[in-house]
Amino acid sequence: MFDVALSGAGAKVVLTTSSDENYPPENMLDGKAESFWISTGMFPQEFVISFAGMMNVSKIKLSCFHVRGLSIQRSVQKEPLDFEVIDERELTPSDASLQLEEFKFDETTARHMKFIIKSGFDHFVSVHKLNIDGTAVREAE
């Protein structure tokens, strides 16, 4: 298992519904909790991560702030299309510290993952670190 969501592993943010040049979406994939992506307000907010190839995903760890409603979806298509929900939940608020959420999966494959932040505990939310434990799937050529 390794963090397949690191930019160094070939993962990319291919879509966000908002962006601030001081807090770009790529910050979610740099492996550091000190850097982050911040929304520009209003909901829903979403972002899509594309991997270098098909991955077996076993666990997602999300470090975020003020996120309330979250939907996680996956796509196995070559392009980031035809997403299906693999988890949805209401997160627990935290006052001054990061929310640390963990999602576990059995035999879930994905080439792309979409995260939809449906609501927040404030007008703005931030995602500091996205860790996705997985392994590459050997694909037939």
Structure commentary:
- This protein is an all-beta fold.
- The chain has a single domain, classed as Galactose-binding domain-like (Jelly Rolls).
- It is 0% helix and 56% strand.
- Strands 1, 2, 3, 4, 5, 6, 7 and 8 form an eight-stranded antiparallel β-sheet that branches.
- A hairpin with an 8-residue loop joins strand 5 and strand 6.
- The model has no long low-confidence stretch (mean pLDDT 95).
Shape: globular
- Mind describing the biggest β-sheet? 8 strands, antiparallel
Percent range for β-strand residues: over 45%
- CATH-assigned fold name: Jelly Rolls
Mean pLDDT: 95
Mind telling me the C-alpha Rg? 14 Å
Helical amount: under 10%
Q: Return the CATH architecture.
A: Sandwich
Distance between the termini: 23 Å
Number of domains: 1
Helix/strand-derived class?
Answer: mainly beta
Family: Belongs to the IFT25 family.
Keywords: Calcium, Cell projection, Cilium, Metal-binding
Subcellular location: Cell projection, Cilium
Main location: other
